[in-house]
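Take a careful look at the sequence and tokenised backbone pasted below. I need to know what the token row says about the fold.
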Amino acid sequence: MQVYEAIVRGLESAGVDTAFGGNGENIASLALALEKSRKIRPIMTRHEQAASFMACGYAMYTGRLGVCFATVGPGAFNLFSGLAVALSDSYPVLALTGFVSLDWRGHGAVNDTSGQGRTPDSQTMFAATTKKSFLLTDIADTCDVLEQAVNTALEGRPGPVHIHVPQNLTHRGETVDNYHDVRLDVAPVRPDPERVQTIAGVLADALREGRRIVLLAGFGTIRSHAEAAVQRFVERFQISVVTTLDGKGVIPETHPLAAGVFSESGHASAWKAFREADVVLAIGNSLNQHATFGLREDLFDGKTLIQVNIDAGEMGKHYRPAHALVSDARLAVEALGVALERMSAPVGPVEVLGRDHETRHVPHLPGAIHPGRLAQAIGRMLPEDAVLLADAGAHLAWLGYYVDLEQGQNFRKTGTFGPMSAHVNGAIGVKLAQPHRTVVVGCGDGCYSMAGFELMTAVENDVPVIWVIFNDDEYKLVKLYQIATYGESGLVEFKNPDFAMYAKACGADGYHVETLDEFEAAFRAALTSNRPTVIDVKITRWALPHYSTSPEGVVSGMWEALEDRLRVGGRAAQ
């Protein structure tokens, strides 16, 4: 076989059924090998960055290997944003890219990224954005390198890997004569039994002494499919649950033990549950900025922090836990449940303030649709087993706050790396990986404008994603930050096209709506059409998302911000 024929066949043997990429002369033979594959569906994107985001979406809830590919040089470099997302958010992704012929390195070849002769060094760049990057120099190593790459992507804390394939290995006469299938050897990350016993003892003591425990759930609980295990655990021991934005829905958000989202744009009930807790059991959570009110130093003062994470490198990264357990989230919860059952007597029901009725009220504003009401409508109409994705922007705060997920539904923001437009494109990968699920993207008009041309990819491949655009003709979060920090704003407003007409021009369904009734009618039609659909929703500029820089609440956050400003002003005056 030729080199890319061997790689494609190896990917087939590993269970890959979809690959996302862009074309180019350097990887022309990869395109031919994919065209001939009967098991892998190639999705050719308009831009390679979209391919990397789609590969992330494909892996997001399945844990299966997402594959993206690009030609040498500029095409390959367009994959970096998606690989950075996969690295920070634990998605197993394989990137395949071309590379200049080895004997041409540094000699002035087009698209040379060997790092020689004043050329960019793609080996260093891909190494910095993946768990491991490989340069294939001997065609006889093809299957071994592919096997190592796939296992590296899937093992431990999942993440991206990359393979450079030099063009000279694609020439006629160059063949792989020692092909073998990819042998998967990925062991689950199991919890250490002694640490499980120790942590169970700490939890048992807390229950016996009447000290409050709160479980802080992150995306790791969703990624490992720990939902059922978490619900059994908290119901048995009557432990309240708060989640990060990415942990939303680990148990139904209408569950009596669900206290809400714990973040700057989260719920007062979650802040209250956390504030009153003596023990915090953080599972599948890296304790990053949005989950800790800006890496707040005093967040865990007076509390016992127990951290469960699949990656030992996350332990003590910013907050030193009293107890740490390196494990897959589901396996950890199951093991802790068994151990704690032996130590704990029956636990009486606890009362959890859950639904924030007084703070979730949406004020009536004249003019366009209030984004809070729009988020409520999306949540109310979201089908069972649906996926709701949010890109970076104010719409994320509205959706995270006002949508209550039921069992089987998922919500995801664009993680720690947090690029705009990642989910505008990534949604296509989610839908192709799980075609039975409804996939809805809540995105800002700025996000959609960056990457909405991939609607053509959805139309061409018949991928019925629903994009709901929160349209207010400005970068809302940037504007709010400018005003709060500098007292003025600039360069944050822009003019949008008619997104609905654009969608129709692409062959998709498009709706422009200005009232809530119009939105509900359009959304209802989109849910039943089984077609790619764009709903352009005109929202008011006057609404401000629920936000606090303090876990003590909005008022405390405002006072802290004012105090900081006065301190800075005082130093400047001196």
Remarks:
- Residues 147 and 156 are 16 Å apart (CA to CA).
- Residues 554-573 form the longest helix (20 residues).
- The chain has 21 helices and 18 strands.
